[in-house]
Write a structure and sequence with these properties.
16 helices; alpha/beta; TIM Barrel; 14 strands; 11% strand; 8-stranded parallel barrel
Length: 441
């Protein structure tokens, strides 16, 4: 039964590039085959429960702008009835969009209880409700996670908190969320260290806090194996906000952390475009780094306003950016358990229910165009050909010997001096390659 929240919208269909229907896909044709795989199976789209259904439209300078029927009235109490209504609307939107997955934090889907025991009971109850909705619609869970950053108890972090009671409370919370994620056949579980960092070293034992974070993650991995959860454990790199220094700053930092605690073969990364920008990188850099280190897992798809110095979480609309991102994803073999999760939110002036549909339709079309451009570049060897040519010198026997471990510094020096080697620089042809990319988008 329809909730009526989106009016008479039933199903968003693919109508092609010439369509002027704002409630239709122009480029996302889920059944189109790209590089031997259906587009839906390449992109594995997911809707973020928190930004779409729990976020009230506030920003650092102002409060709620959205009015939703599942939000408690002013001064009212959040209830399980409202949580069920929220779920009804959410699954109605998932079905209308045809997205195969969704994601959630525990705090987004159920009201906070007076005790942790009550909060867990409410999560279990709404998980049962989700189960029925998932069976009815065919929508699956890409990943679950725990909100360990919003409540004041986490103001000094969760796993890295100086108070062991907070560490324990967070551990119990994560256990309950992994249990629910497994019950709902989630394909991943994400740890997002929203406040796992510090503001000042004047009151921080950095080494202790990093050890706490390592122990916490090791217990999560142990528990995953104990209960037979077959999904992937993911860490989401996050620089700067809200804390000044984050322990999970970027992909390279996370990899170093995983290596330190012997978890590099157990945990992968969920990379967000907005976080990559805040870390001073491009999205494709973080994706390429994750592939190079063997820890690529999934992505949160959004963009930042490049004139703002904070995480604005806007829906993607830049096709060249998407083409370069999906080029790296396809070059790395594509998603396995991961997917493209829209960790993006409406602008706080976009008040209408259908704005949620327009945002996701535009984002999905943008990603589809980027995927197709990336696939054509790979099939044509448009970038890999020039790249192979640039490193062709390393195919020689002498070059291979320098990296084999058998050659010594003295031998290399003797080879250079005796053969009179004088390197001649060659152009990197960056502008030429940029022009190639633009031809495909």
């Amino acid at each position: 039964m329809s909730t009526g929240f989106f009016g008479d919208v039933a199903k968003i269909e693919f109508e092609g590039p010439d369509s002027t229907n704002p409630l239709a896909y122009r480029f996302y044709d889920k059944d189109e085959v790209v590089m031997g795989k259906r587009m839906e199976d390449h992109l594995r789209f997911s809707v973020a429960y928190w930004h779409s259904f729990a976020w009230p439209g506030g920003d650092p300078f102002g409060g709620q702008t959205f009015e939703r029927p599942w939000f408690p009235q002013a001064g009212g109490t959040d209830t399980m009835d409202l949580a069920r209504l929220k779920a009804d609307v959410a699954f109605e939107m998932f079905s209308a969009l045809g997205t195969p997955f969704f994601c959630f934090h525990d705090a987004d889907v159920r009201p906070e209880g007076e005790t942790l025991k009550e909060s867990i009971a409410r999560l279990d109850e709404i998980a049962d409700y989700f189960g029925g909705k998932m069976e009815e619609t065919g929508v699956k869970l890409l990943w679950g996670t725990a909100n360990l950053f919003s409540h004041r108890r986490y103001m000094a972090g969760a796993a890295t908190n100086p108070d062991p009671d907070v560490f324990a409370y967070a551990a119990a919370t994560v256990k309950s969320c992994i249990d629910v994620t497994k019950r709902l056949d989630g394909q991943n579980y994400v740890l997002w260290g929203g406040r796992e960092g510090y503001e000042t070293l004047l009151n921080t034992d950095l080494k202790r806090e990093m050890e706490q974070a390592g122990r916490f993650l090791a217990m999560v991995v142990d528990y995953k194996h104990k209960i037979g959860f077959e999904g992937t454990i993911l860490i989401e790199p996050k620089p700067q906000e809200p804390t000044k220094h984050q322990y999970d700053y970027d992909v390279a930092t996370v990899y170093g952390f995983l290596r330190k605690f012997g978890l590099e073969n157990e945990v992968k990364v969920n990379i967000e475009q907005g976080h990559a920008i805040l870390a001073g990188h491009s999205f494709e850099h973080e994706l390429a780094m994750a592939n190079a280190l063997g820890i690529f897992g999934s992505i949160d798809m959004n963009r930042n306003d490049y004139q703002s110095g904070w995480d604005t979480d806007q829906f993607p609309n830049n096709v060249p950016e998407m083409a370069l991102a999906f080029y790296q994803i396809l070059e790395g073999g594509g998603f396995t358990t991961g997917g493209t999760n829209f960790d993006a939110k409406l602008r706080r002036q976009s008040l209408d229910p259908q704005d949620l549909l327009h945002a996701h339709i535009g984002g999905m079309d943008c990603c589809a165009r980027g995927l197709k451009a990336a696939a054509r570049m790979i099939e044509d060897k448009a970038l890999s050909g020039p790249l192979e040519e640039r490193y062709a010198g390393w195919k020689s026997g002498e070059a291979k010997a320098m990296l084999s471990g058998n050659g010594t510094l003295e031998q290399i020096s003797e080879h250079v001096l005796s053969n009179g080697i004088e390197p001649q620089p060659k152009s990197g042809r960056q502008e030429y390659l940029e022009n190639i990319v633009n031809r495909y988008v």
